Amino acid sequence: MAKESTFSDETYYTNRELSWLLFNERVLSEARDKQMPLFERLKFLSITASNLDEFFMVRVASLMDMVDAGYKKRDIAGMTASEQLAAVNEETHQLVERQYYTYNRSLLPQLSANGLRIIIHHEDMTKEESVFADSFFMENVYPVLTPMAVDSSRPFPLIRNKSLNLGALMTKKNGDGEMEFAMVQVPSVLDRLVELPSDEGRKLILLEEIIERNIHKLFLNYDIVCTHPFRVMRNADLTIEEEEAEDLLQEIEKQLKKRQWGQVIRLEVEEGIDNRLLKLIREELRVPKEDVFAIAGPLDLTFLMKLYGMEGFDHLKEHRYLPPQTVPELPEDANVFEKIREGDILMHHPYQSFEPVVRFVRQAAKDPDVLAIKQTLYRVSGNSPIIAALEQAAENGKQVSVLVELKARFDEENNIVWAKKLEKAGCHVIYGLVGLKTHSKITLVVRREENGIRRYVHLGTGNYNDSTAKLYTDIGYFTCSEIIGEDATAVFNMLSGYSEPRSWNRLSLAPHWLKDRFLRLIEREKEHALAGRPAGIIAKMNALCDKDVIEALYGASAAGVKIDLIVRGICCLRVGIPGISENITVRSIVGNFLEHARIFYFENDGKPEYYCASADWMPRNLERRVEILFPIEKPALQEKLKLILDNQLKDTVKAQMLQPDGSYAKVDGRGKEKFNAQLFFCEEARAAAREEAGTAHKRVFIPKVHHT
Q1: Full-model pTM
Q2: To the nearest 5 percent, what fractions of the chain are helix, strand and coil?
Q3: Residues labelled as active-site residues
Q4: I want to staple 610 with a disulfide (CB 3.0 to 4.6 A). Which of 325, 394, 583, 632 is the partner?
């Protein structure tokens, strides 16, 4: 067995950012898969573009900040920030090339073959189409545009983050031929896809092409030399001095305004852009050559999600994935509290509906016996029924305490609105904790009953967001266990009053001792293996990059523990290292739903333990966030979790396996039946819902037996 100290060798780890790029490659592989319905491929290509934007605004921006600050510390793979930036830049350029190769060579021809043509250049329109486009411009677009010229009295305009713009070089009519710069922002308030009249199939053109065709109408005294689209990505990572901030809400509101004008970290331009125009934009925005991306197609492919939503192309979409099904233990007309008293309930979203969670809060708001509702909110939907229920609860005189995490990245603005709304309704609102993000998902309802006070608890691996609950796979858990209820009360007392209990019953919290708990559980499996007892670990999560946890996994693997990891995104662990990680497999599932649940299984000498959590195995989750790990102890519910894990390990359609060289490859399905875990869970949820509906029908309609 290898010594503990050998597990820290830098060659045993993959850089976090490069691992993330490999994840986006796996998303791109879905867009490149010709077995997929065409519109699903469009959707996945759009997701790769959206993912890349966020990656640059946060992760690449962070690396740039480190370089600017002279930060020399190496990451777990032994790379400095500048080395990471160089590697990320090279990989990203290649990724973007593959994105546009997929778009131009595969998707556009397929769309055309299916009766939907996207006109690439405005010059390609027919005379009739050109007349329509020009009329559309004057009636719908021209009144919205703000042309901006640059001269001695008008400085170079501020370019908003992620905005799409047209830059132009022009000369004054009857002037001296001196070149001047002008630009116009493509308005985001208008649809980017414009449908043209057509007798054959359907034709679309992008809004920027119509504007480019008519840009001379915005600068009447000039001759247009050239026009090209460009787009900037800015540093959107907020720097919040929480200790110094007198009012966290006001401080975050102030910082949000800066997000639009942060340092430019990426400049996208049209391939073939006039060099004079590119030089001018680069110099004004201070963008080095390596941060310029020459794009062979339309900038910002996220418009493909709008294309996906077009009516009339249902035959090009995937219909095998079923909508969320009824939770058998919680029929739609059932009282949630009565059902929880009958026994703990485990839900598997989005295969099973999130509606019972919303109903739980709604019924608590109206129930005269409910005294208090306490909840943590990290991300919620735009028109959240849970927020509405909490408001109603406060208006009905309940004690309502809500922790709204204002620092939830890119949801800060929404959460500020919700926090103010809840306060106005009379809720007690906590704006997170200084220095920590509250990422845990927990709701506590305190109810007065015949036998005294009873506490009902909901714990989850995902957010209280009814919209994403239809797209993300998560676990939800209802219980009225007295000991978990005590822990839940302690959680909220800690969040609102900084009073941590001396001991906990069942819940484990980060940043206090969750990481140590995981390390002890892994160490215990290692000790079982060394003693010849049954040992094994199955862990499912979004990301794995905590060095202490990876070292512990290496130690367990070297001792003979079989470890199966299901990691959707970043994975800094390497498999197949002789004597160290030969007993570890890592697979990533990228499918119709976003894999988001965190489930942990420990064999424990034949007495298996199961846990679910809000936390991934990342330093930020284990050390800088409030997270909750909760055990699932009822055998029937443990069986459900084991079924989820076992079926994901069987997936031969959407799973990709991490290879010893750090790459990922589709599961070798030769000689195996094709098995798609997500489709299996859809069918399983439908079968369970139908079975319960049939049983309920029999319970209600029992025929009377007439004796003669």
Answers
A1: 0.91
A2: 40, 25, 35
A3: 439
A4: 632
